[in-house]
Design goal:
Oligomer: homodimer
CATH topology of the largest domain in chain A: Tetracycline Repressor, domain 2
Strand content of chain A: under 5%
Order of helices and strands of chain A: HHHHHHHHHH
CATH superfamily of the largest domain in chain A: Tetracycline Repressor, domain 2
Largest sheet of chain A: none
Largest interface: A-B, 60 and 60 residues
Number of strands of chain A: 0
Number of helices of chain A: 10
Helix content of chain A: 55-70%
Distance between the termini of chain A: 63 Å
DNA sequence: CCTACCGATCGGTAGG
DNA sequence: CCTACCGATCGGTAGG
């Protein structure tokens, strides 16, 4: 593999998991299998490495953006698809969410500029789409489009980034099947079986989508089966 | 002021703003106005200082908890008040939200335990309250109570922590009055006037409350005018 | 609470 | 891409 690409991948993980200050160049170099000085041959400084990691993340985001905007502005009446696209991007690699969140905490002013430049434009598009939906009476008139989109983005990014701690601690596994496997009665459960973690993530993700939907659309989005009245 | 209390306050700010690794004992000591060695006389190690800061945060939370649980479980039908209590706690000092978010990112396993111990119990209470509301037909039957509360907590904490970057970049100031002050036509606006920032925060916060409400209650929360059925 | 000091590690450079 | 090295800073200790 291209050395630069491998360094970027390793650095991405390191910055996302331990933070920019917590991750050392020595540590990144070790994981790549080169000397620290060699790493600094490819990236002139730690800060330039950080910027390259961010740039790479933006590039990947630009891959899914066109699809997202087509779904939003084009024919499809499914704003749910926009959400799906968003959720999938960050769920595909939770370190993307963690990295962004850390950058926002570490360098809020820089990130405000970056978000204003790379995110605000398509948020505007989605917000306009919502305004159309409001005009057609499909969406709640009380929705504040920009603020709504901001809250949804926040929910998705932060939700993915904090899922292991928040969902892991607050959500029990779903009942699954009644008493299938014999779980020893003593302790509550294993620290976290991967399957249990994903079950929690699913419950959490389903609720996220429900909240986003229910707070946007006026009626059940599924063909109304003569609700009450 | 008590030296320990002053150190805790300064350390809280430092850890929240720069992260545990990014904040140095030297820096904290300087801001307190003592020597680093003196700081380590009050707190045996940097890690114990971190734990003391976290403990202090939990103590303050325990101050508002009883009020919150009374509102939720007691007579008041206002789950909105629970939200208000939550929002107010973190808005009163955004560093509380930043610190918690950083700890979740830095030590997810530790925080999962801490949340399971100190947060899960009252989440259960609120979730039970929601189940009652569902049984009475006041709240959507599709709500997953635990997952809902988790998402709302996530929204509030992350929302407060990232407000300056996310809301700051995505939300324009509200129209306020039409063309009251003469804003020079050239640049878009000042980097961020404090009043503009708070206006954004208000729009963002209002929408957060709306989303939480609309996705929970079946009808307009105002007195049901003979609900359907 | 201070002065004085420690080994370890940090990001980064010189030179090949 | 490497070896060899740098000054600065880190958390922490000894001793008063």
């Amino acid at each position: 593999m291209d050395a630069r690409a491998e360094i970027l991948a390793v650095a991405m993980r390191a910055f996302a998991e331990r933070g920019f200050d917590g991750a050392s160049l020595q540590d990144i170099a070790d994981r790549v299998g080169i000397r620290k000085a060699s790493l600094l041959y490819h990236f002139e400084s730690k800060d330039l490495l950080r910027l390259a990691v961010l740039e790479q993340l933006l590039l990947r985001w630009n891959d899914v953006l066109p699809r997202l905007l087509m779904v939003a502005a084009g024919g499809g009446p499914r704003i749910g698809s926009v959400m799906d696209e968003l959720v999938q991007f960050f769920s595909a690699d939770p370190n993307r969410a963690r990295l962004l969140l850390r950058e926002i905490l570490d360098r809020p002013d820089d990130m405000r500029r970056l978000i204003g430049k790379h995110v605000a434009p398509w948020v505007k598009v989605v917000a306009d789409y919502i305004r159309e939906g409001q005009a057609r009476g499909e969406m709640h008139a009380t929705v504040d489009p920009e603020a709504y989109v901001q809250q949804v983005i926040n929910m998705v990014v932060s939700g993915v980034a904090t899922a292991s701690s928040l969902a892991g601690a607050l959500i029990d596994e779903p009942p699954v099947a009644a008493g299938k496997a014999s779980r020893p009665a003593g302790r509550r459960r294993a620290p976290t079986t991967p399957s249990a973690a994903s079950a929690r993530a699913e419950r959490s993700g389903k609720e996220l989508l429900r909240i986003a939907r229910e707070s946007l659309f006026r009626e059940r989005p599924t063909r109304a089966t003569k609700t009450a009245r």
